[in-house]
Amino acid sequence: MIKRIAQAWAFASILLLPNYIDITSGSGDARMRVPHPLTKIVLAHLTDMAIVAVIFAVATALLRKLRAWPHIRWALVAILPPLLFARNLNVIPFTIPGPVVLAISTAWIGFVVFLAPRLPHRYAQLSNAGSTLLAGFVCFALVMTVQLTRAAFWRPGLQSWSPPIATPPPARPRLVWILFDELAYKQVFEDREPSLVLPNFDRLRAESTLYTDVTPIAKRTTRAVPTLQMGQIVTDMTYTSGNEYLIKTKQDPHWTKFDASASLFGQAKRAGLSTSVIGWYIAYCPTFVNIATQCWWTNDDAQDRGPTSLDASYAENVWFPLRILAEQAFDPRLAWDDESRWNAEGHIQSVKNVSQHALRVLASSNADIIYLHIPAPHPIGFWNRHAHKFAPGGSYLDGLDYTDRLLGQMLYILESQPRWAATTLLIHGDHSWRTWMWRPLPGWSAEDERASNGGQWDPRPLLMIHAPGQQSPVTVTAPTSLMLVHDFVAAQIKADSRTEVQ
């Protein structure tokens, strides 16, 4: 009995591993990049494991009573290892091509089919060994259970603080630094879809410096953001259960704590400049505590890998992963659509919340540097440009439409302020539209396919700078690294710290 219970719990732990792996370690934790406790998520995962374990235990107990059990057991030995292998492909730290997966699975099934009728004694030994091995995986299951329980007690760092900043003279220089996540140059300016109208980008471009050949510094936000802050290429990062942001750089391949005091925000503080930070996905406030003057951040997206969400109820977080698992087995297309919708709803919440806070800060903050990390036009589709409303199922072009509308609201606020004449406006993407990443995932639309010319990837992020009082366009066609953003902001900090307003 104990062996069978162990087998059931081990099977459930391995089958559901892709759903919860990101919260079972003290580091490398994508799900801990949220400003809210994970207790509800953890309880849902443990409940799913219990449900799957009970179903497995009951099903195998009933099958053992059948006269055909020896043949059924043979079939389970042939099928279960390839099933669990395929199920956990995204957990494996390297890519295994589909043909290789198929070849390995076919070879295993063929081996069992060959062995069973010809060498029954050896087959029995193999079957018993497999049964024992599955039970032995209970050690793995217990470790995962302990780690999940530990994550239930994790508490995030600060989400916000906003002390008042004295009103400065109108002539005091100000930098408004806007990072539109996944903002691509090609789709905005070079090869725009004829049906897409971006009047606010066009108007700002007419009085800004536009860089047309920007070389990216990273393909992921978690590398690009700290790279721009530090002026060093960050090759890897992790956010720990101790709320520490750790990085590796080209100069130092070892894990080191991100030095917020050495960042651009740290430089601004030492220069006597105030900063107001609105962020998404990166744990900005826990990272820049005691550095930024004002801060707020969030991440409402459905959590990485596992189909759960902090905005969903406990019951929804229990039911939805099991539903997706069943749909993947019996109706993959439905699973694809449901997971796409679920992810879109989480991203919609992120875009709404960050946009509202960004507009509020632009209207009210007196900070010398205002930094806004906006989760748009970043997929998954969250906007319907034809209906002018938030909705799952939109394309990257729809996201660009929303981004342009938000930019228009930002410009309206900024241009109506006395400090606008002394404001430098920096707008860029952290990377371009990663068609190579989104095309194989739920949410890729027919319009995405057309707009990307069949998934072709152009690596250039958008970079545009409006200088105070600039009224005509300037175009820079020379190849330019996005690292220019770090150097430009550092220079602005140095210049503004020396400015004396009479």
Q: Report the CATH superfamily of the largest domain.
A: Alkaline Phosphatase, subunit A
Number of discrete domains: 2
User: What's the shape?
Assistant: elongated
The CATH architecture classification of the largest domain is 3-Layer(aba) Sandwich
According to CATH, the fold-level topology of the largest domain is Alkaline Phosphatase, subunit A
Assess the beta-strand content as a share of residues: 5-15%
CATH class of the largest domain, please?
Answer: Alpha Beta
Description of the molecule:
The protein has 502 residues and is an alpha/beta fold. The chain folds into two domains: 2-152, no CATH class; 160-218 and 274-305 and 345-498, Alkaline Phosphatase, subunit A (3-Layer(aba) Sandwich), CATH 3.40.720. Helices cover 49% and strands 13% of the residues. The chain has 18 helices and 16 strands. The chain has a nine-stranded mixed sheet with strand order 1-9-8-10-2-13-14-3-15, sandwiched between helices. Strands 5-6-7 form a three-stranded antiparallel sheet. A two-stranded parallel ribbon has the order 4-16. Helix 12 links the parallel strand 8 (275-280) and strand 9. Helix 1 crosses helix 6 (120-136), helix 5 crosses helix 6 and helix 14 runs parallel beside helix 15. The longest helix is centred in the C-terminal third of the chain and has 33 residues, at 332-364. The radius of gyration is 26 Å and the shape is elongated. The relative contact order is 0.15. The mean pLDDT is 90.
